[in-house]
Structure formats: structure tokens, C-alpha cells
Design brief:
Elements: E1 7-11, E2 18-22, E3 36-37, H1 40-54, E4 58-65, E5 72-79, E6 109-114, E7 120-126, H2 146-209
Antiparallel strand pairs: 1-2, 3-7, 4-5, 5-6, 6-7
InterPro entries: FAR1_DNA_bnd_dom (IPR004330)
Organism: Durio zibethinus
Pfam family, one: FAR1
């Protein structure tokens, strides 16, 4: 996104990317289809700021990954009141007393996906909420609940583990290639020694026959 006049430039929580965030007195910038962002994080920051100013809490929802390399290709960002709390039956049948839930089946969300140029674009925007919206001060509001934060942390850790595994696999493949090359060279040297011995034995045999 371009930095509009009156907007404040802040750094995103990953990559040091500069993202435009409106000041408190500015009109609320509403998402719409076709808006582009430099990264998924930039889109998250934009929608989270929109959610704060409108009066709801953003939830990071489902994503679609590449089957080839596991990269995230699309993501849904929505309201933390999305979905419904499902009753859980105990081992012996009775329904457990449900814990308090903030889920109210809210459909508000944006869908973003990465395009051919590598930018993230909004492909769908659902504006309406099915619950009251409450605007809270920035200091008093959690942008994401602890469960969402934990999911993000674990996802990042899993991604790092996969990168490490890929790096170790690459190193192991390179090592095995070196071992194979040394093995081939050793086989050639052994074969040369065998050939030399055979040649020596042949010469020795000829000398014995001429005596």
C-alpha cells in the first residue's frame, strides 16, 4: 500500500516492513477487493488496525498452502467471534459443562491471496457482523487472543524445523555424494593395483619361460 497523507508509518512485527496505519482522527479505511499488500504480514496489520477502529478483534484463520513447497498461498482473516462453540460429550455420555465462549458465528472476514507478482491481494471482503461492535483504546485491547498467538508461534517454529530438516537433508546428500566419489576413486586405484600385479605376474612368467 502507498503511504497516504496523515498516516503513520510503523514497522511490522516481522521483516521490518513499513506499513501505513491511519491516525486516530483519520477516516476509517475500509478493506475492499483488489487492495494489494507487499506481504501477508502487511495485510494482517492493516486488517487488525481496521478491526481495532471498527470495534472487533481480528482472528487469524485458515490458510491454503502450496503442495510443492508448503508456502502459504492464501489466508482468511476474520472476527474472533467467528464459528460456534461445540458441545463435548464425556467418556460416559453426559455433556460437559461448556466453558464461556466468545464465538457467535460471525461471518465478517477478508480473504487474501498471493498473486503472480508476489503481492497479497484482497479477493473477498465480508463487512457485516452479527454482534455489537465495541471500540476500545489501543492500550486496553488485545489484537489477538492467546490461542491465536500460540498458533502463530508454533507455526513459525514448525516452519523453521522444516527448513532445518531440508538443510540437513541437503548436507547429507552432499556428503553421500562426496563419499560416493571417493569410493569410485578408491575402486579405480584398487583396479589399477590389480592390473599392475597381473602385468607384473605376466612379465615374471615370461622371464621364467626364457630361462
Amino acid at each position: 500500500m502507498d503511504l497516504d497523507e496523515g498516516a503513520v508509518a510503523i514497522e511490522s512485527f516481522r521483516g521490518g516492513e513499513i506499513v501505513a496505519v491511519p491516525c486516530e482522527g483519520d477516516p476509517i479505511v475500509e478493506p475492499h477487493e483488489g487492495v494489494e499488500f507487499e506481504s501477508e504480514d502487511a495485510a494482517k496489520i492493516f486488517y487488525d488496525e481496521y478491526a481495532r477502529r471498527v470495534g472487533f478483534v481480528m482472528r487469524v484463520m485458515s490458510c491454503r498452502r502450496s503442495e510443492r513447497d508448503g508456502r502459504i498461498l492464501a489466508r482468511r482473516l476474520g472476527c474472533n467471534k467467528e464459528g460456534h462453540c461445540v458441545s463435548i460429550r464425556g467418556k460416559f455420555g453426559p455433556v460437559r459443562k461448556p466453558r464461556p465462549s466468545s464465538r457467535e458465528g460471525c461471518k465478517a472476514m477478508i480473504h487474501i491471496k498471493v498473486n503472480k507478482s508476489g503481492k497479497w491481494v484482497i479477493t473477498r471482503f465480508v463487512k457485516d457482523h452479527n454482534h455489537p461492535l465495541v471500540v476500545a483504546p489501543r492500550e486496553a485491547r488485545q489484537t489477538m487472543d492467546e490461542k491465536d498467538k500460540r498458533i502463530q508461534v508454533l507455526t513459525a517454529e514448525l516452519r523453521n524445523k522444516k527448513r532445518l530438516c531440508a538443510a540437513y537433508q541437503e548436507q547429507l546428500t552432499a556428503f553421500m555424494k562426496v563419499v560416493e566419489e571417493h569410493g569410485n576413486q578408491l575402486s579405480k586405484k584398487v583396479q589399477n593395483v590389480v592390473n599392475n600385479l597381473k602385468e607384473y605376474e605376466s612379465i615374471e612368467l615370461q622371464l621364467l619361460q626364457h630361462r
